[in-house]
């Protein structure tokens, strides 16, 4: 194992290796398609048509992309501090609760111009609060953040079931959902928004949250790479001991990065609750938090990479729905499988090809023999 | 009075049944984590095991062959975890997440392909399930007050996997604390360098540990689909793998304490079912969700250091690098 003792050129490490990992994940998906008797080429065509073939499909694709950008950024910010925020699910759920409660209680009294920003802030605060407790416990009591965030996912889900069934449920309703928000607190859908400028597009759940997602990506880029806090986060993430010597307090960094992470995850609630459902309900968040891990891994924790990876997952989600609709012998869970394979090959087996690539590189550059002796 | 006693016994009886998969999965996690490999994919392995057991049992018509299939599938996933975390030193949490998600997706995709029932497996006949066993004399003593009831309801009348799970606790204790393998297992989790210096392969011990994890998760999965239920349905483990993980931490990575934690969490679950819609004198109706959330809440409080201290094996989560 020559890992670490030789340097690979940047492009191999940052582009070729991730590319090989993704190709492996897709190859594994193709094998599964073949195993269940589906032609992978035909499946890909249907998938791409579903995602890009018509306006409504594109709308859905970008709608899903919005969620993935939020959760991908959330996971990435924590990653930069060396933390694994596996609680995106719970933070998204509680973020939605924050936005929803604000719309529910203030929506009819205040104008939309006030309610909407307030609700967005509420989503961020609620998400951050749900991340704050595990962060605090990690920072000051030494509890492992992976375990506590897992527990907080389940706690969020119990809390929401309780609230939706026993407290916030609309009177006279059978299903556990709240009353509809006042219309002033709805976030503009993209088709309504563009109609203002005279552009007609088909209706889809895509709404203005996507701009919020892009803003969040810019924010994360500036925050992580161009502020003191971001510098502290990256320092603690790459070498906590050195950070402490430089006078950085790890506990503060843990809390700060997790709160930002939670706030970003909470934004999923804005897209779902304020953008589409216009009411609080159960399970609007399911799967996005975990998918965020795949998105962050694939996007290498950089906002540009995350936007691209989120788009890919948006395509898979929407295309996967189309696939399940078109082919009776496939269900939407094929997307879940792909997601698992991406996490496996781009995440857990990230370095699988590294030793092999290293040997190739050394052989081609003709430095293999010399290095081998030196090692 | 007798009514209350019967309700009490029935609740404990239910506790045993819901605790069984928790005990098996938590002990599974114990092997892996004691060797230094963090495993949050107990859930995924159980789910895959449950699917394999139900699928194979429905085709082969035998619960035992189903059990073997569950163990085999669960071992394959455990080895995948090992391949990523031990051989390639990948992130153990990421690998665990990948396996959970993969199991959730693959069971549905393959289930639909093989059985065309929207991802479910066909309902199992009684021959293809693990049925309740009557221990000798259970009927004879059933009329003896109290003790007879305890023997008949609580101790007798479970399927064989329940007994396996409970026997697995002393067995695990024996393996981990009284055998050479157990000593090495614990050593590898605390100080792999020392084990390596003694000429024992860290990699080999950790692989053996994750295989043990695979076997026990497989049994847990088979219990869920072929003993507790009679078919596989979507996401049927429903977070039990994570409760088991919580129980493992709550039990501080020690077999008998883990058993206690599993029984406690199982009891809470049984109690939640029993208290549904019941108004308690002086307290009123307790929301079921609150009782359901208690295992998670208790674990968080424990981890925060308010009930004793949970110290994980020192080397857990850290891949072993030989050249240092």
Automatic annotation (TrEMBL), chain A:
It comes from Leucothrix pacifica. It is found in: Cell inner membrane. InterPro entries: ABC_transp_permease. This is Sugar ABC transporter permease. The keyword Transmembrane helix applies. Pfam families: BPD_transp_2. It comes from the Bacteria. GO terms for cellular component: plasma membrane. It is a multi-pass membrane protein.
UniProtKB/TrEMBL annotation, chain B:
It is found in: Cell inner membrane. It is a multi-pass membrane protein. It holds the Pfam family BPD_transp_2. The keyword Transmembrane applies. GO terms for cellular component: plasma membrane. GO terms for molecular function: transmembrane transporter activity. Keywords: Cell membrane, Membrane, Transmembrane, Transmembrane helix. The chain crosses the membrane at residues 7-31, 51-81, 93-115, 160-177, 207-226, 232-249, 256-273, 293-312. PANTHER family: GUANOSINE ABC TRANSPORTER PERMEASE PROTEIN NUPQ, SUGAR ABC TRANSPORTER INTEGRAL MEMBRANE PROTEIN-RELATED. This is Sugar ABC transporter permease. It comes from Leucothrix pacifica.
């Amino acid at each position: 194992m020559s890992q670490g003792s030789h340097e690979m050129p940047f492009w191999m490490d940052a582009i070729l290796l991730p590319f090989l990992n993704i190709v492996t994940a897709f190859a594994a998906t193709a094998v599964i398609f073949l195993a269940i008797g589906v032609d992978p080429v035909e499946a890909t065509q249907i998938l791409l048509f579903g995602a890009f073939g018509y306006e409504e499909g594109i709308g859905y694709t970008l709608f899903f992309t919005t969620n993935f950008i939020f959760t991908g950024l959330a996971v990435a910010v924590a990653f930069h501090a060396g933390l694994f925020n596996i609680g995106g699910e719970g933070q998204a759920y509680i973020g939605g609760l924050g936005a929803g409660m604000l719309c529910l209680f203030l929506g009819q009294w205040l104008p939309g111009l006030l309610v909407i920003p307030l609700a967005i802030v509420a989503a961020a605060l609620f998400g951050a609060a749900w991340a704050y407790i595990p962060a605090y416990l990690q920072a000051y009591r030494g509890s492992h953040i992976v375990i506590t965030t897992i527990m907080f996912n389940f706690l969020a889900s119990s809390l929401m079931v309780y609230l939706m069934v026993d407290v916030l449920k609309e009177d006279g309703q059978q299903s556990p959902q709240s009353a509809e928000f006042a219309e002033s607190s709805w976030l503009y859908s993209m088709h309504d928004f563009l109609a203002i400028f005279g552009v007609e597009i088909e209706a889809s759940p895509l709404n203005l949250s996507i701009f919020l997602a892009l803003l969040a990506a810019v924010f994360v880029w500036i925050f992580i790479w161009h502020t003191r806090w971001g510098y502290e986060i990256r320092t603690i993430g790459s070498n906590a001991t050195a950070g402490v010597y430089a006078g950085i307090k790890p506990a503060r960094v843990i809390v700060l990065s997790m709160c930002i992470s939670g706030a970003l995850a909470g934004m999923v609630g804005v897209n779902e609750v304020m953008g589409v459902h216009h009411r609080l309900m159960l399970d609007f968040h399911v799967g996005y938090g975990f998918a965020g891990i795949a998105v962050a891994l694939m996007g290498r924790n950089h906002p540009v990479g995350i936007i691209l990876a989120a788009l890919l997952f948006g395509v898979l989600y929407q295309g996967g729905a189309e696939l399940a609709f078109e082919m009776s012998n496939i269900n939407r869970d094929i997307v879940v499988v792909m997601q698992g394979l991406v996490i496996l090959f781009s995440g857990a087996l990230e370095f699988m090809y590294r030793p092999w690539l290293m040997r190739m590189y050394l052989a081609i550059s003709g430095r293999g023999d010399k290095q081998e002796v030196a090692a | 009075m007798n009514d209350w006693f019967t309700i009490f016994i029935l609740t404990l009886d239910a506790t045993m049944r819901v605790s069984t998969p928790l005990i098996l999965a938590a002990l599974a996690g114990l092997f892996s984590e004691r060797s230094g490999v963090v495993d949050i994919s107990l859930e995924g392995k159980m789910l895959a095991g449950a699917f394999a057991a139900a699928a194979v049992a429905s085709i082969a018509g035998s619960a035992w062959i189903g059990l073997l299939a569950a163990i085999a599938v669960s071992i394959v996933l455990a080895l995948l975890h090992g391949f990523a975390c031990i051989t390639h030193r990948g992130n153990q949490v990421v690998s665990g997440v990948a396996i959970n998600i993969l199991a959730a997706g693959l069971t549905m995709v393959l289930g639909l392909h093989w059985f065309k029932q929207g991802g479910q497996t066909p309902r199992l006949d009684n021959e293809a399930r693990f049925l309740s066993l009557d221990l000798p004399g259970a009927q004879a003593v059933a009329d003896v007050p109290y003790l007879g009831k305890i023997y008949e309801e609580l101790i007798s009348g479970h399927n064989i996997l329940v007994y396996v799970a409970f026997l697995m606790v002393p067995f695990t204790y024996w393996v981990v604390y009284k055998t050479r393998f157990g000593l090495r297992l614990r050593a590898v989790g605390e100080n792999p360098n020392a084990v390596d210096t003694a000429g024992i392969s860290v990699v080999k011990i950790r692989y053996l540990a994750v295989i043990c994890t695979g076997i026990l998760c497989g049994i847990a999965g088979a219990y869920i689909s072929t003993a507790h239920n009679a078919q596989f349905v979507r996401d049927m483990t429903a977070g039990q793998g994570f409760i088991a993980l919580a129980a493992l931490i709550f039990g501080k990575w020690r077999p008998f304490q883990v058993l206690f934690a599993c029984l406690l969490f199982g009891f809470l679950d049984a109690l939640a079912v029993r208290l549904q819609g019941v108004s308690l004198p002086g307290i009123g109706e307790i929301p079921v969700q609150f009782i359901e959330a208690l295992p998670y809440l208790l674990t968080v409080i424990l981890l925060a250091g308010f009930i004793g201290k949970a110290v994980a094996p020192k080397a857990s989560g850290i891949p072993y690098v030989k050249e240092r």
